[in-house]
Design brief:
Layout: E1 9-13, H1 20-29, E2 33-36, H2 37-44, H3 50-59, H4 72-81, H5 83-106, E3 113-116, H6 120-126, E4 138-143, H7 146-157, H8 161-169, H9 174-179, E5 183-186, H10 193-213
Parallel strand pairs: 1-3, 1-4, 2-3, 4-5
Length: 214
């Protein structure tokens, strides 16, 4: 509604394999409301949605599974090797994701919102003013080394080394992500959810304190 201030919102970002989903789940345990742009993208490409029809029209029906759903793995492989395919997909989805994210943030009822935006650094570099700037009060980067990212992607996604390195190569650099950070959460170690939880608890206290000062 006009005149109502939107909730305090933290943009959560990080490279592939950095641990964003784990961190978002830990924030949810603290009571934060989570809006994940990857999940919004999945909503937008469900069968019957206009975005899916546009993807098929511009990229081809070969990105569909036999039952008419988007084959995300096949599309991801094409995006790595075909910059034009990536550009077309982003032009179709990014404005829709941004609009839906805005709706979800403004309607949130939690103490604050964690808006998960994996490609925030890339989006900000490509637009003026920076993408999502009007929705975000702070940016939290989940950080780890490229070597650790590679290990996790190989273990999680079943890619070979060449595919995983290509995926890392099309994302923003570690330095570019850190350059937009207000807060940094270190996730270098494997399986140390206790250490992550302690960092999230401290950030949760910080964000709730900032909410009270608005």
């Amino acid at each position: 509604m006009v005149g109502l201030r939107r909730p305090f919102c933290v943009g959560l970002t990080g490279g592939i394999g950095s641990g964003k989903s784990t961190v978002a789940a830990l924030f949810a345990e603290q009571g934060a409301e989570i809006v994940d742009t990857d999940l919004l993208a999945r909503e937008l490409v469900e069968p019957g949605q206009p975005a899916l029809a546009e993807i098929v029209a511009q990229i081809g029906a070969e990105v569909l599974t036999a039952d008419g759903r988007l084959d995300r793995a096949a599309l991801r492989r094409r995006m790595v090797g075909e910059p034009e395919t990536r550009r077309r997909l982003e032009a179709i989805l990014h404005p829709r994701i941004r609009a839906l994210a805005g709706e979800r943030v403004h309607s949130a009822t939690g103490p604050y919102v964690i808006l998960v935006i994996p490609l925030l650094a890339e989006s900000q570099a490509q637009s003026t003013p920076p993408a999502y700037a009007d929705l975000l009060d702070r940016v939290l980067v989940v950080d780890c080394s490229p070597e650790r990212q590679l290990q996790r992607v190989l273990r999680r996604d079943g890619m070979n080394v060449e595919q995983a390195q290509a995926m890392l190569g099309v994302q923003a650099s570690r330095a570019a992500r850190l350059a937009i950070a207000d807060d940094i959460l270190n996730n270098e170690t494997n399986g140390d959810e206790k250490g992550l939880a302690l960092q999230v608890t401290a950030l949760d206290r910080h964000y709730k304190a900032l909410v009270t000062r608005r």
